[in-house]
Write a structure and sequence with these properties.
Radius of gyration: 19 Å
Bound molecules: zinc ion
CATH architecture: 3-Layer(aba) Sandwich
Number of domains: 1
Shape: globular
CATH superfamily: GTP cyclohydrolase II
CATH class: Alpha Beta
Oligomer: single chain
Number of strands: 8
Distance between the termini: 48 Å
Length: 251
């Protein structure tokens, strides 16, 4: 039989875990954890939290920790959030809800400007003084998943635009959901936030989901010959604002 957790491990972790009750069950939030980050050659200290969705709702964290080693979490993706400055109490904080982009964030793909936006938003948070970056792991390819995104890229190489490709594969254009992120945000900050985005639909979706928004900050991207068409589709079909309206077409 598997041995229970040793009490020292539990006592260390207990203080760093928070239960957030949701409609579907629970979110367990762990953190803050010190995370020094290399940001354009400078070391910047963020605080990091990660969360896990669970059907089981309990404040007995030993039960949750006990399940981890058999849960195969590496096969799933967990989301997380980087926090900078006095995020809980600071008057004016800016946040970014960043959708995971394996090709853009990790490989630096030029087919989109996600990787650029990721780093840029971290820099803007640092310059602003306080804020947070939510990295949403279930948002790959606007919620269609990495493998489907690869299929969509094949279609795009054959003349489809982003929206047509996703729809051609049977997906709605944008199936991202922000409710978990908003629940986590509420657990770490009560005051309103300024949202970094160029996408008015995203701003509205977040407001409707209960986010207290005090404003919007555009986030200009990295335009090149490789992503021009993708960015133009965002403006034409997905309601993103153009540059001369004070916003970048991506996200
Ligand atoms: Zn991307």
């Amino acid at each position: 039989m598997k041995q229970g957790l040793n009490s020292k491990v539990l006592s260390v972790l207990e203080d760093k875990i928070q239960l957030i009750r949701t409609e579907k069950g629970a979110i367990y939030l762990v953190g803050p954890i010190k995370l020094p980050v290399n940001l354009y050659g400078e070391t910047v200290e963020f605080k990091w939290y990660c969360w896990l969705n669970c059907d089981e709702v309990t404040e007995d964290f030993e039960r949750i920790i006990d399940k981890l080693s058999s849960s195969n979490l590496a096969e799933l993706q967990q989301s997380s959030v980087l926090v900078y400055g006095d995020f809980e109490y600071g008057e004016d904080a800016i946040i970014r809800m960043h959708s995971i982009c394996h090709t853009g964030d990790i490989f630096g793909s030029k087919r989109c400007d996600c990787g650029y936006q990721l780093k840029k938003s971290m820099k803007m948070i640092q310059e602003h003084g306080t804020g947070s970056l939510f990295y949403l792991a279930n948002h790959e390819g606007r919620g269609i998943g990495l493998f489907s995104k690869a299929m969509a890229y094949v279609l795009q190489e054959n003349g489809y635009d982003t929206v047509e490709a996703n729809e051609g594969l049977g997906f709605v254009d944008d199936s991202r959901n922000y409710s978990d992120a908003i629940q986590v945000l509420k657990a770490i900050r009560q005051k309103p936030v300024t949202l970094m985005t160029n996408n008015p639909k995203k701003l509205n979706a977040l407001k409707e989901a209960g986010l207290k928004v005090s404003g919007r900050q555009p986030l200009w991207g990295d335009i090149s010959e490789y992503n021009e068409k993708y960015l133009q589709t965002k403006i034409n079909k997905s309601g993103h604002l153009e540059e001369d309206e004070g916003a970048c077409p991506n996200d």
